[in-house]
């Protein structure tokens, strides 16, 4: 072994250093969580070894009982957390403790504001982890040996949590990891065993591995003798939380368990804990986080449940149990039927997994439904964080389309705010007695949707319209033909048949009145092949003109998204609708000069494009034409 391999000083990765610094500052008021994080890691390490030992029992040697030991040394002012889990090789120590592997970390960090209060919220999204040690310790020493490696292949990692850390190869007789925290002066409370015990009970009762501590010795004569000093006792419940019955688990315990498995810092919003018996036997405990992780939109970021088979941890991020649109769900599933050596490949093929997947999917949707009913405010919080993801549902999960549709929330023309908080069911409740369709308008922004000319007739008739302005919305409605038996109808598409939904207003006829045919003809001549057709609008009451998509054409929002993504989109022509009651259109009809007729007609056409948020083909001409008419007004 070379000299440098024996002992070297290495710098923390920039991201790791930034995160470390931030962590120390922002979590100071909640510093006891360091212990939670270290126990969480120890328990993960034991889970991993237990799993590997199924195939390679030799890894365990003669030490097959798993445990985590915590002790404090008042003289040295140290707290030590030791586990006999998987341990780390030297290379793993350098990677795991010196860098942050999560993709997107750098970007996450650039989003930090420097405002510690806000940033500590963000840290929560990231998960706290091992670096929490430095909240209480000025120096941290990690000694570890990977299970299966020789005694001479141990490794010691030391750092003061600043720019760098030291690693050296050491001899270590036992596998697993021992972490020694040299406490800061103002953290001496953590040397008291009653304090440590209280923290363990608070945060680690759910940990399925026994957590042992030296029993706090009563001050009797026995305590002076050496023998009593080694008396360790188990201080947590040490049974897998999900195996307990719901009634026996307190909300706080559910929350602590959530933080452990989700590597989250904040409480979950809600959870669903179920035992299934029958042909397939399994237990699931699934959580809805309160906050979206920073990498929610990264397609590669890990997702899925933690899989256990008969209480034995098998793998993290088992994706097969939930569809992609529920990727925000965290939790565990523990199966009694799967084999202990199940692999991801097997999971993909096993038909039993399919039926578990549909049952688990339904559970999540049910628990969201329940939340929406019992606590609309919390549900709204969920929606703000994950609504966009849920909107992928109808396209991905045909079987649950209606259920998902019931969970969607929108802004509408009557809700008067950008906040998406109206369900389709509440829309249907408010529908006019003879209204048969659910109307929507899609645009690039709330503002554009809200003030779309297409809404004019609906406003006049008091018909509510759903406002769609998220990128995914047109994709969503293209997979959601109806809700509650009511078809969804784009107000900017095809001919509007509002007459069947009349409020007594006199019907406008389908055939244009003879006095308009001349105008329509002239307009058709102006636009020629640029438009599908020109017709008298039944939609407009205030605006002079608008553009409509034909029945089978792609919506404009979807078209723009595809174009932005560089995809070829088939040419399509729009229907140009004019409002014959509008003074500008009346003026147009009277225009004798063909050149001026053309220019005014083009201004109306371009205005219609602008109103729906589209780009003009020739903005300079628009400005020039418009100015011509403005000057005319000014001159008059
Ligand atoms: P996380 O637990 O979210 O992965 P941490 O910062 O808590 O992040 O830990 C970083 C990594 O260090 C872990 O993923 C694990 O690989 C390694 N690690 C930490 N503690 C231990 C331990 N006690 N035994 C083995 N590996 C550990
Ligand atoms: Mg951790």
Walkthrough of the structure:
- By secondary structure, the protein is of the alpha+beta class.
- It has four domains: 4-234, Heat Shock Protein 90, CATH 3.30.565.10; 241-382, Ribosomal Protein S5, domain 2, CATH 3.30.230; 408-508, 3-Layer(aba) Sandwich (Rossmann fold), CATH 3.40.50; 514-635, Heat shock protein 90, C-terminal domain (Four Helix Bundle (Hemerythrin (Met), subunit A)), CATH 1.20.120.
- 38% of the residues lie in helices and 19% in strands.
- The chain contains 23 helices and 22 strands.
- It has a nine-stranded mixed β-sheet with strand order 1-6-5-4-7-3-2-8-9. It has a five-stranded mixed β-sheet with strand order 10-11-14-12-13, sandwiched between helices.
- It is elongated, with a radius of gyration of 33 Å.
- The structure holds adenosine-5'-diphosphate (ADP) and magnesium ion.
- Magnesium ion binds next to helix 3.
Short description:
The chain folds into 4 domains: about 5-235, Histidine kinase-like ATPase, C-terminal domain (Heat Shock Protein 90); about 240-380, Ribosomal Protein S5, domain 2 (2-Layer Sandwich), CATH 3.30.230; about 410-510, Rossmann fold; about 515-635, Heat shock protein 90, C-terminal domain (Four Helix Bundle (Hemerythrin (Met), subunit A)). About 40% of the residues lie in helices and about 20% in strands. It has 23 helices and 22 strands.
């Amino acid at each position: 072994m070379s000299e440098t391999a024996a002992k070297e000083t290495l710098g923390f990765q920039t991201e790791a250093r930034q995160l470390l610094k931030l962590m120390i500052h922002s979590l100071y008021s909640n510093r006891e969580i360091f212990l939670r994080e270290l126990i969480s890691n120890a328990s993960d390490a034991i889970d991993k070894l237990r799993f590997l030992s199924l195939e390679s029992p030799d890894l365990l040697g003669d030490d097959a009982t798993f445990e985590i030991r915590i002790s404090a040394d008042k003289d040295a002012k140290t707290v030590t957390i030791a586990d006999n889990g998987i341990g780390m090789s030297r290379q793993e120590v350098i990677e795991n403790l010196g860098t942050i592997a999560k993709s997107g970390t750098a970007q996450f960090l650039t989003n930090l504001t420097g405002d510690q209060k806000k940033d500590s919220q963000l840290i929560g999204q990231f998960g706290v982890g091992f670096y929490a040690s430095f909240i209480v310790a000025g120096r941290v020493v990690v000694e570890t040996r990977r299970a299966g490696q020789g005694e001479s292949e141990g490794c010691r990692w030391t750092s003061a949590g600043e720019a760098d850390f030291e690693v050296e190869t050491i001899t270590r007789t036992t596998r697993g990891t021992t972490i020694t925290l040299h406490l800061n002066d103002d953290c001496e409370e953590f040397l008291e065993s009653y304090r440590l015990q209280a923290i363990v009970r608070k945060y680690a009762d759910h940990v399925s591995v026994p957590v042992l501590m030296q029993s706090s010795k009563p001050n009797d004569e026995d305590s002076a003798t050496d023998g009593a000093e080694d008396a360790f006792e188990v201080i947590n419940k040490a049974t897998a939380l999900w195996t307990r019955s719901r009634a026996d688990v307190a909300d706080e315990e559910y929350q602590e368990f959530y933080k452990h498995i989700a590597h989250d810092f904040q409480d979950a919003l809600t959870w669903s804990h179920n035992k299934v018996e029958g042909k397939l036997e399994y237990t699931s405990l699934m959580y809805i986080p309160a906050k979206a992780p920073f990498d929610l939109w990264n397609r590669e970021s890990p997702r899925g449940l933690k899989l256990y088979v008969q209480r034995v941890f098998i793998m993290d991020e088992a994706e097969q149990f939930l569809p992609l649109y529920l990727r925000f769900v965290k939790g565990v599933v523990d199966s009694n039927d799967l084999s202990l050596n199940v692999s991801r490949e097997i999971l993909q093929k096993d038909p039993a997994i399919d039926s578990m997947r549909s049952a688990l999917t339904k559970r999540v949707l049910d628990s969201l439904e329940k939340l929406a009913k019992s606590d609309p405010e919390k549900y709204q919080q969920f929606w703000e964080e994950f609504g966009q993801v849920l909107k992928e549902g109808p396209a991905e999960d045909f079987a649950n389309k209606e259920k998902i549709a019931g969970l969607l929330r929108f802004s509408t023309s009557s809700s008067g705010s950008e906040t998406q908080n109206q369900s389709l069911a509440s829309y249907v409740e408010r529908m006019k007695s003879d209204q048969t369709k659910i109307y929507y308008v899609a645009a690039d922004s709330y503002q554009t949707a809200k003030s779309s000319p297409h809404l004019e007739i609906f406003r006049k008739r008091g018909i509510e319209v759903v406002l769609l302005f998220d990128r995914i919305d047109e994709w969503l409605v293209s997979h959601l033909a109806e809700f509650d038996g009511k078809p969804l109808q784009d107000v900017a598409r095809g001919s509007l048949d509002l007459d069947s939904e009349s409020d007594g207003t006199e019907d406008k006829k389908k055939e244009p009145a003879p006095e308009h045919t001349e105008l329509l003809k002239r307009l058709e001549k102006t636009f020629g092949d640029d438009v599908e057709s020109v017709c008298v609008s039944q939609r407009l009451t205030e605006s002079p003109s608008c553009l409509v998509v034909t029945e089978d054409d792609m919506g404009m929002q979807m078209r723009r998204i595809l174009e932005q993504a560089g995809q070829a989109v088939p040419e399509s022509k729009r229907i140009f609708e004019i409002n014959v009651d509008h003074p500008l259109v009346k003026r147009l009809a009277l225009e004798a000069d063909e050149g001026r007729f053309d220019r005014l007609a083009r201004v109306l056409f371009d205005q219609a494009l602008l109103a729906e948020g589209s780009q003009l083909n020739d903005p300079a001409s628009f400005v020039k034409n418009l100015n011509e008419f403005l000057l005319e007004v000014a001159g008059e």
